[in-house]
UniProtKB/TrEMBL annotation, chain A:
It comes from the Bacteria. The keyword Nucleotide-binding does not apply. Its main location: membrane. It comes from Devosia riboflavina. GO terms for molecular function: branched-chain amino acid transmembrane transporter activity. GO terms for cellular component: plasma membrane. Keywords: Cell membrane, Membrane, Transmembrane, Transmembrane helix. It is a multi-pass membrane protein. CDD domains: TM_PBP1_LivM_like (cd06581). This is ABC transporter permease. Pfam families: BPD_transp_2. The keyword Cytoplasm does not apply.
UniProtKB/TrEMBL annotation, chain B:
Residues 1-29 form the signal peptide. PROSITE patterns: TAT. One of its GO terms (biological process) is amino acid transport. Pfam families: Peripla_BP_6. It comes from Devosia riboflavina. Gene3D superfamilies: 3.40.50.2300. CDD domains: PBP1_ABC_ligand_binding-like (cd06338). The keyword Signal applies. Residues 35-384 form the Leucine-binding protein domain. Belongs to the leucine-binding protein family. Keywords: Amino-acid transport, Signal, Transport. This is Twin-arginine translocation pathway signal protein.
TrEMBL record, chain C:
Keywords: ATP-binding, Nucleotide-binding, Transport. InterPro entries: AAA+_ATPase, ABC_AA/LPS_Transport, ABC_transporter-like_ATP-bd, BCA_ABC_TP_C, P-loop_NTPase. GO terms for biological process: D-alanine transmembrane transport; L-alanine transport; L-isoleucine import across plasma membrane; L-valine import across plasma membrane. It comes from the Bacteria. This is ABC transporter. SUPFAM superfamilies: P-loop containing nucleoside triphosphate hydrolases. One of its GO terms (molecular function) is ATP binding. Signal peptide: none annotated.
Automatic annotation (TrEMBL), chain D:
Belongs to the binding-protein-dependent transport system permease family. LivHM subfamily. Its main location: membrane. The keyword 4Fe-4S does not apply. CDD domains: TM_PBP1_LivH_like (cd06582). It comes from Devosia riboflavina. GO terms for molecular function: transmembrane transporter activity. This is Branched-chain amino acid ABC transporter permease.
Amino acid sequence: MIFLIPLLALAALAAVPFFVGAYPLGLGIGILGYGVLATAWALFSGPTRYISLATVAFFGIGAYTVAVLADLMPYPLVLLCAALIGLVVALLVGLATLRLAGIYFVIFTFGLAELARQLVTYYEVNVTRTLGRYVFLPIGPEHIYWQLLGLLAVTLALAFWISRAKIGLALRVIGDDPVVASHLGIGITRTKLALFSLSAVVMTLAGAIQAPRWTYIEPSIVFNPTVSFLTVIMALLGGPNRLFGPLLGAVPLFLLFEWLSANFPNHYSIILGLLFIAIVFLLPNGVLAAWDKLTARFKNNEARA
Amino acid sequence: MTTLSRRTLLQAMGTGALATALASLPTFAQDRTAIRIGYAVSKTGANAGGAGISTIPNYLLWVDDVNKAGGLELSKLGVTLKLEVTEYDDRSSAEETVRAIERLATQDNVDFILPSWGTGSNLAAGPTFDRFGFPQLAGTAVTDMAPQLVQRWKNSFWFLGGGHDYANALVDLLVKQRDAGAINNKVAIASVADGFGIDLSKAATPAFQAAGFELVYDKTYPLGTSDFAPIINEVSGLGVDTFVAFSYPPDTFALTQQAVVANFSPKIFYLGVGTAFPIYPNVAGPNHNGVMGVGGIDPDSEAIAAYFERHTALVGQAPDSWASAVTYASLEILGQAITRVGDLDKSAVAAEIASGEFDTILGKVKLVDNQLRALWTVGQWQDGKFVGLAHTEGKAAREPVVPKPAWVPAS
Amino acid sequence: MSLLTLSNVTKRFGGLTAVNDLSFTLTAGETVGLLGPNGSGKTTALNMISGYLPVTSGSIALDGTTISTLGPERIAHRGVARTFQLVRALPSLTVGENVLAALAFRKDPLWGSKAEAKIENLLADVGLAGRQQEQASNLTYIDLKRMELARALATEPKLLLLDEWLAGLNPTELRAGIDLITRLRQSGITILLVEHVMDAVRALCTRCIVMNTGSRLADGPTADVLADKSVIRAYLGDDHA
Amino acid sequence: MLFSAILTGLVLGGTYALIAMGLTLQYGVARIMNLAYGDLIIAGSFGAMLLFTAAGLNPLIALFIIVPLGFALSWLVYALMLQPLARRSPNRDRLEGDSILATFGLLFVIQGVALVLFGANYQSYSFLAVPIDVLGTTIAANRLLAFALAVLFGVGLWLLLTRTRFGTVIRAVAANPGSAPLVGINVDHVARLAFALGGGLAAAGGVVVSMYLTFSATMGVIFTMKALIVVIMGGVGNLLGALAAGLILGVVETLVSSFIDPGLTLAATYLIFLAVLVVRPQGLFGKAAR
Amino acid sequence: MLELTNTALRYGKHLALHGVGISIAPAETVVVLGANGAGKSSLLKVLGGLVCPEPGAGLTFEGKAILGRPAHDFPELGIALVPEGRGIFGDLTVAENLQLGAHPPHARPHEKRQRDLVLDLFPRLAERQGQIARTMSGGEQQMVAIGRALMSCPKLLMLDEPSLGLAPIVTSELFTALGRISATGIAMLVVEQNVKASLAIAQRGYLMEAGRITGAGTADSLRADPAVQRAFLGAVA
């Protein structure tokens, strides 16, 4: 019975492209795209509290894989390749970052994303002699929407499963106290690497799926560091330690960006900035925590009445 | 207090969603009081610098010009309507660009959409323009793919040519100078590792080689490079008379300053995007004279002179002398096509743009295969103007000054 | 037979020698007190046994195999469990999850309903029956200590390292704590106990090792060691002897 | 050739060190990861340009106006926005998260104001763009001046930190904020001053780079990231580390550009940075975590 | 001079202090004895302004109520704390640590005099002024911490387990120095496990167990009190 609700919700969301126009569908794609990224980000960073800015490295690798391979093999195989490449890169990155903590980890991951961008650029410029690549795939926005929806559902299911599985417990223990974790027999390296890789594979797929939407792929488009920053902000805003937290950060923020840029195109930055500051002050623990507090207060009032 | 604010915030978000939903209700042509023009341009982000010079001012200027003239006459509807603008910021992101166009097309129901700045964003927006049947007048995209893209997207129009146009014109010009004995056979090229730089260098390298030039330096540098001392130092020791940089604005300025400082003053000093910017003479000081670059204008054209004046009066600075006039001309073409069609039928307007001949600040213009083929390809700063030295179809506006004056050290 | 053997173990932090050439052996089933004034190197020794700190030189063996080259999780899998001087709860987890974390990652892991039953037993053993669902961060000090012990026991260790587990308890709690450890002893587990509460040491330990400034000062039956003049001097100062 | 490349690299590295100094102070003492740092640099650049073009003021003199303004602005930002966050945070992690979010907002505000005031265009003016011959290598006077100023500020800051009572207090707070109250140091107060001082240095960096770099309202984040990389590579809160890392990056960039391929300069920067962290996770001069 | 009344301190649900009250007279040396976890350090934290006790507590110093004032005001009032673990600035030199000790405004004019006093008290510090404090031995670090506290011209010096982790010979040196400090007329509050040495320099003492004061008296009476021995070595010591 309880499994029916998410399935129904999924079905309802899957039906959306049949009822809405191109713009709401575009919004949907944007929201799902960031929803996937933020949820995937929180898979690793939520329990461990490591703030990663490498999101766009994987996102861009996914997009580039599609751009390079789209003409060579069937689309599902392309996605599989993207996932594999993402996995390999994630394992390497994960191993390199094991000893880093705090701000060092943050900036390291940022440097990594930039390095990926520089190396791709250098390769394209010197080897292929083209910087931009074209992705002409017969994939319409509704297909992208469905794929992202599927990916989000899978990611959420994974997140849900992880929160209940041993590996999720291991990660929470590591996040709370790595010393205790190791003394309880938890392989910290293995666990962190596994989750980091899983999260990275999802990010890679998010980039791969969205690549056909832009037609034209170049490093400055798909390795845009803003993506990493927005992902972090959304997940932090929603609350990275809850299943739907990152999503609940991504949806309102995405709509907020859209609303602001539409209504205040010339003062967008200022208003957005002020709102951010306000949010930090007003919602210190994220949207979901604030919501919990609100409902808790409500329940208390009811109980008293 | 916090609860209140939190609620207000949520309400504000809700109101926004509602407003967008309401805006989606269709309005009827009969009720219309204006022609709705929409565009999403980079007001922030990496592309904001380019859009702020070549794109946004021209959109403002065109709307202002048309509205001052009373609007566009729609003979089939029997009205003359002014332009009304819906603008968004694409935040220099391809994703935002695509979605903003979807929004303009389906939510705001604008009549025409103007594209954003840059090659990448125009290519990214192509399928979306195509899907909704809007003519796409790409005034700031340089791509050799244009002939194929036109096949793919029937309503796309490409106004700024491809890398080959600029590279070949430059090589032709240099061949003449070499054959006249004005310069030696050695050329150095530095290109920015970005779409524009690579497109041009890809076209230029074989062209130079085919013309028998010796390429003693041909390297790229990453976007965002701020220090050009190593490149200039190396090139200055190679004995070249010709230095070519397919560069982006900040690099264009930095390369100039570095060359002046290093007293590397080749006979031909050619730079990429930004050379034609009105700010360039401020940056280079007296040394801007004789610098060549991509683009150019006809200094004898009264239409261009008037355009420069109107532009300066409205936005407070002169336009750039490459893509600005082309962008403005593309808008003139759009306006004239609308008037000729007499209503707001997008495909009819697109067909008219493709086939008609138009009177623009660039002179009489007729698109070939949806592309503007009449382009200024090489320009040079002469007497405070960035004059065209080579044109794909017409004659040069001025003869090149070779060698350029030696650098004057800044005081 | 000997369960744990420390041979010439030394630990240096920069210029500071925290443990200096320490050797001792624990026989299976023993409960041994590791005593000494604050800063004498007891906790550092414990940290090296549990693998939290690498040894600078010397070696540590468990059941005859060297463990001083292993990381803490491998040592835990070989049957060493510990508590910490300053209680280290996992604050964002519930009491039940704290114990589950130990069950789930031990050598023969328990998960699901089997684990649930085991958690109940373990918590009941330490006096936390029925409190699985409480958030660890809400526990009182003594209950945190109990939980930490349950967590350590959940790994079914051969060797249990207790680092001042009884410190800070009031007399009643202390009595209960001593009883608890007495019961553990009877189950056959080997215990190494760093402790300042001498009543407890007397009650629990058959043997004591006393450390001072990183070195072993005395090793022998509890009563003898606590009567040793050098030990009393180390604790109470010179003229007390 | 090699000598010339190294000299050029040192001059470039001086700029990197200069823009990183303020950040290392802000992060090291006030424990704020200030993502709006680069936007303050840009604000300083705009200020210098405005004074130069509108009032004809020499940027060197402009420093005396803009640096105090940067100091005051950062002081206010800390007092109004960051101090409440610092007070509310139970631990370092939390403050880090909050300060990332809040200064991310500030970044947008400053950038937005610059956009409204100056537009998105590239800005540049020419000051002291004259060649100077240094041991056979030609270097722009403005760059040399920037290097000299970087050295001046670096030495000045170093003297301030090591030779004055106030500097000792700042280092004490950076080293051990928990113990500072024991000697009567008001940590809030010192953190605010250090943050403001960092802001003043950022503004100074802005004035200096505006002499020879083209800048625009949206370029702040580039400076922030460059500064962060220098700071992290050097070891957080370590002035000497920032200087060393800045110079190393400058020299590496120039060497790669001169002898390998200019296309790999930025890749080399990031590679060096990442390699340093893989070998020394705490940065060149940083202390180990434990 | 200092009066603490009815103080309870809570960390989360854990009650570290219950109804604690102590007083210190000018120039008096008072020792607080007790086992680990008895609440001694918590008591010092309250007295140093580092933590805020539950409502109902009272703290006066020279007649002024000072509860709730920020910790960084205490040195200026004349209360100096040498915390457990010493709390020195490890990255700084010995001289800088001492200089920082004189940071409170009232102490600055006397910086030179106090420095001479400290260096006289701990001659070893005089040789090591340029050394980075972190690289010194435990005993020397303790000297730095005490010296730093003395630099603020305190009226009351509070020490949390000064002998912690020190070799017996160093401990005895340290207590000799503490005795000399006491002789200069500075009031001292010492929290210690080293019963003998601390009682030797104290006039009075308190015994703490499980967050409560369970005994008080003169140094002599405590020395003879079996409860004190029990608290440390168990029944039969």
